[in-house]
């Protein structure tokens, strides 16, 4: 993951799949954030020409973690990345994966990644990704077991796609 710190400056939970959107934003719409935009320039090229990177054996990050207080442009930056690369944009909230029943969240993760793979190259944005985090293992209560399975499925999906598939996962969090 490429982590980027940000300074100041819904979809239906039953389906969890947002319709693929074409982002109307570009980096011209993002005020400031010069350093963050420069960091993402290589990702734009990767989304446009993944074969070029695979041919030379370059390792492109499978994802980006944007961190910063609410209202600092994390979502806009993710949309602008998709707009610059002219690829579909998917947005979900991490809380939409968390369910009472074990296995439901993991199933939603699989469904989301299946949709992304069908429409690759694309940008998959997960807001509030920290909801899925925490400690794995230990306490085996139903809620923690569900979170563990959901997080494990997310990590499995991210490990499972090849660079040539052209899927960039962007996670956003308000926690440092």
TrEMBL record:
Which organism is this protein's natural source?
A: Apple proliferation phytoplasma
Corresponding gene? hflB
Q: Under what name is this protein listed?
A: HflB protein
- Localisation per UniProt entry: Membrane
Example GO biological process: protein catabolic process
Molecular functions per Gene Ontology: ATP binding; ATP hydrolysis activity; ATP-dependent peptidase activity
Q: Which residues form a coiled coil?
A: none
User: Major place of localization?
Assistant: membrane
> Does the record's keyword annotation contain Isomerase?
no
InterPro entries to which the protein is assigned, alphabetical? AAA+_ATPase (IPR003593), ATPase_AAA_core (IPR003959), P-loop_NTPase (IPR027417)
UniProt topology in membrane: Multi-pass membrane protein
Q: Is Nucleotide-binding given among the entry's keywords?
A: yes
Q: Please name the SMART domains in this protein's record.
A: AAA
Q: What are the UniProt keywords, alphabetically?
A: ATP-binding, Hydrolase, Membrane, Nucleotide-binding, Protease, Transit peptide, Transmembrane, Transmembrane helix
Question: What GO cellular component entries does it have?
Answer: plasma membrane
Segments forming domain AAA+ ATPase:
60-174
